[in-house]
Every structure is written in C-alpha cells, then in structure tokens.
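Worked Example 4.2. Consider the chain below.
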Amino acid sequence: MLVNERTFTQEVLESPIPVLVNFEAHWCGLCRIIYPLLLQFQNECGDEIKLVGVNADQNFKLSTTYKLKSLPTLLLIEEGIVRRRLEVFCGREDFRMALEEIKFIFTSSHKNHYEQELGVRSQESGGRITPCETVGGWHKFG
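Applying the procedure from the previous section yields the following structure tokens:
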C-alpha cells in the first residue's frame, strides 16, 4: 500500500497496529533489491504489522519530517511513535535480520515474551512500555 502526505496520518500515525513505513524512490536500486524481502515480511506478519510505502521524492514534507539521509529508510511506527529506524544496511542478510527482530518484538506471539524478558509490564496491566534506544537500526538495551 502506498501512502502520501495526505493519507499518512490516517494510515500510519492513527493505525491500531504497528506500521513499517518504507521510504523509497523509483531510481533507488537498493529499494528494488529489498522489495521481495519486504513482501515476505508482510506475508509472515499477516495483520499484526502493516507495511506501507512512501515515495520520498513525491512526499518531501514527510522526508523532511523524518530526516531521511538515505534510501531506503524504514521506520516502524507504533501509536504514532517511531519505535525503530532502519537505514544503511550492510547487505541482504543484515536487512533480513533487522526485519526478523521487528517481527519478533512487535508481533503478539512474541511481544509478551519480549516484555517479560525485559521486565517491562504490558499496558494491559497498567504499566508503561518504554521503547528501546536504537543505534544504527539496531536496538540497544540498558
């Protein structure tokens, strides 16, 4: 699904499920290379994580708002907050591992286990979930 500046708020920021936003451009070779991995990711996550694309050239305000430095840049947005930022990949395997991490942390079958591992109470129990600090697309604990 492609979104633009007009539909971004409704489709991404107000989404009831996490959204992986793929900022791309038609001239970007790496964007074309990762596309099959993104389709596989979407199929594996089903309706637990939404995948959308944004043409960075045609949506300059969004590109500026999210301070894009390179393409592709992927943002995982949950409840209107950027939870992960993926950019500057070392290769296909590096990108695949980053997607696996997102799937592990943000799908319901793994989310409760992840929260328990970190000692974080879920929102259902009245606690607050604090996002991990990201460093170069990977999360840093502690």
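Residues 22 and 35 are 9 Å apart (CA to CA). The radius of gyration is 15 Å. Compare this with Example 4.1 before moving on.
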